[in-house]
Design goal:
single chain; mainly alpha; 13 helices
Length: about 350
């Protein structure tokens, strides 16, 4: 940043040798930085409200889009390799993150500073792998609507892991708000026409893994020196996760790459589906960051509460899976419980401060 300089000028004199307070002062402003110029250029094209609306719409498109694409690939199209698909997601996130941070400067780059920090991120990557693989695999057996109903119970598992691992307790109001979360999923499960026990169990595992990752991340990356921005954390977690998944997909799913290449020779559409799916998987992470940046973490939480319901409705309209009144009621009760949980958490934090 170059500080503004003041030059005093007067006809027939040397401004460096003869400054005078009565002379005219010409202020040379500071040269704007690249970030400032970029922000000004974007702001001149889009108003803040339009930009926020566009980012929010992109968030919904990516979050719901990746669910629908995963469901179509794994259940409808017949690409029955969820571990390999998850590995493609991780490779995509690694590549796009590298481009976004190193070349587009979306966020300042951060580096792994110690071996200890490396192994902490590796542990998070393993939990991340488990959660995503289970979530993708469950879509082979469950409709998206039921998948999202189970996923909405994440706060319940977060509260359990926070108590078991960190001995953190919540207020009675917070724990009471979790009752409708659990009750709603019980009702929805009993009323789901396409209920599949294995799909249900691995979807619960995915939800528990997502909650465990958030708790463990809060424990492992606590010091200021080890804290990483979400986009930088993704940059390091994604390739680690891909390396973890590579031997697993080879052992369980066989030589999927050769199968996919052979499939692509006769059906080019599979290439488009896989590239689009992997790209949208990265956009989920990017739009999470952008929504938080341009609004707030609370807004992201509210959008997340609504996303499950929107995704369920859209998936029923597209895939025409059967639903029951009791199933929809149970889903609604779960979502209502999540909203109550969010409000109770907010009040407990306000009271604590």
């Amino acid at each position: 940043m170059v500080e503004g300089q003041s030059w005093t000028t007067r006809r027939g004199s040397n401004p460096r040798l003869d400054p005078s307070p009565t002379d005219q002062v010409l202020d040379i402003p500071a040269t704007p930085t690249g970030d400032f110029r970029a922000t000004t250029a974007i702001g001149s094209l889009l108003s803040p409200n339009i930009l926020t609306a566009a980012i929010t719409a992109s968030w919904y498109f990516s979050n719901i889009g990746v669910l629908l694409l995963n469901k179509y690939l794994l259940s409808i199209y017949g690409f029955r390799y969820p571990i390999f698909l998850t590995m493609l997601h991780m490779l995509s996130c690694a590549g796009y993150s590298l481009a976004a941070i190193r070349w587009l400067a979306v966020v300042p780059p951060q580096h792994i500073l110690s071996r200890r920090q490396f192994f902490k991120i590796l542990a998070l990557s393993a939990i991340f792998c488990f959660s995503v693989v289970c979530g993708n695999t469950s879509l082979r057996y469950l409709p998206v609507s039921f998948n999202q109903a189970i996923g909405a119970t994440t706060p319940f598992f977060t509260a359990i892991f926070a108590f078991l691992i960190t001995f953190k307790t919540e207020t009675a109001e917070v724990y009471l708000s979790l009752l409708p979360v659990v009750f709603g999923i019980v009702v929805a499960s009993n009323s789901e026409p396409l209920f599949h026990l294995f799909g249900f169990l691995i979807c619960v595992g995915s939800t528990a893994g997502r909650a465990l990752k958030s708790v463990v991340q809060g424990i492992l990356l606590t010091s200021e020196a080890e804290k990483l921005h979400s986009m930088n954390l993704l940059l390091y977690m994604a390739p680690m996760a891909a390396m973890i998944l590579l031997p697993i997909t080879l052992y369980i799913e066989g030589n999927v790459l050769a199968i996919t290449i052979e499939k692509a020779r006769s059906d080019k559409f599979i290439v488009f589906l896989l590239v689009a799916n992997a790209t949208v998987a990265y956009l989920v992470n990017l739009t999470n960051f952008l929504v938080t940046k341009h609004t707030s973490a609370l807004t992201l939480q509210v959008l997340g509460n609504a996303k499950a319901a929107v995704a369920a409705v859209v998936s029923v309209m597209i895939f025409r899976n059967p639903v029951t009144v009791m199933g929809m009621t149970g889903f609604a009760v779960t979502v209502m419980g999540v909203v109550l949980y969010s409000e109770a958490k907010k009040r407990s934090k306000t009271t604590a401060h």
